[in-house]
Amino acid sequence: MIPKYEEDFHGWATGTAELLRQRRLNDLDFDNLIEEIESMGRSERHQLINRLAVLIAHLLKWQFQPDFRGRSWHGTIKEQRLRLQEIIEDNPSLKTMKEEATKKSYKLSCSIIEKETPIDLNLLPNGCPYTFDECLDDEFYPE
Questions:
Q1: What is the pLDDT, as a whole number, of residue 14?
Q2: C-alpha–C-alpha distance, residues 24 and 120, integer Å
Q3: In which domain, by residue range, is 73 found?
């Protein structure tokens, strides 16, 4: 017997996987299964937005604090680009939300800038000054 979703998530998940392998559809907890699958999609979208926010924050630092440019920022920019490319390769449907992700990520990046730098947020543009494609372009570094 499979444990209830609310009582033992791990047991429920492994039991549900076994039911699916056995094609025992009548025994599935469809409501929670649907919720978990939707949650997986949201998780990928959140990962895209969070990584893009870190990348945009470092591009802003690069642009607005040129005297502090260094290997660390360059390394973070490169790493986030690689990880974002992996996310897109694994989830090509996320390409359809490039503009939305860029807008949401920019808001997050401004909070990162506020927390990590002395940059006056009033000096930053109202919207992201970089396109999604520029953000992922290995050659793009704003001046």
A1: 94
A2: 59
A3: 9-136
Query: Does residue 51 fall inside a structural domain?
Result: yes
Which helix (DSSP H) or strand (DSSP E) does residue 5 occupy? none
In whole angstroms, give the CA distance from residue 70 to residue 103: 27
Give how far Cα 50 sits from Cα of 23, 46, 114, Å: 37, 6, 16
88-111 pLDDT, tens digit each: 999 999 999 999 999 999 999 999
Residue 80 domain flag: yes
Is position 1 within any domain?
no
Structural domains counted in the chain? 1
Backbone angles phi, psi at 133, to 5 degrees: -65, -40
Q: What is the amino acid identity at position 96?
A: T
The tokens of 96 are what?
């359809």
Angle between helices 9-21 and 30-64 (to 10 degrees): 110
Q: How far apart are CA 39 and CA 5, in angstroms?
A: 15
- Answer yes or no: are the C-beta atoms of 143 and 63 closer than 8 Å: yes
